[in-house]
Amino acid sequence: MGEIIRVVCDNCDYEKQLKTGGGMLSIKAAVVEDNLKDEDLLQWKSLQESGKVRFFSWFYELAYCDVCKEISSCFNVKIQTTDGESLCLGGRCDKCHRKLTMLKKDEDMKCPICGKTTVTKNIVGHWD
Question: Of 88, 94, 91, 105, which Cα lies nearest the Cα of 70?
Answer without folding.
Answer: 94
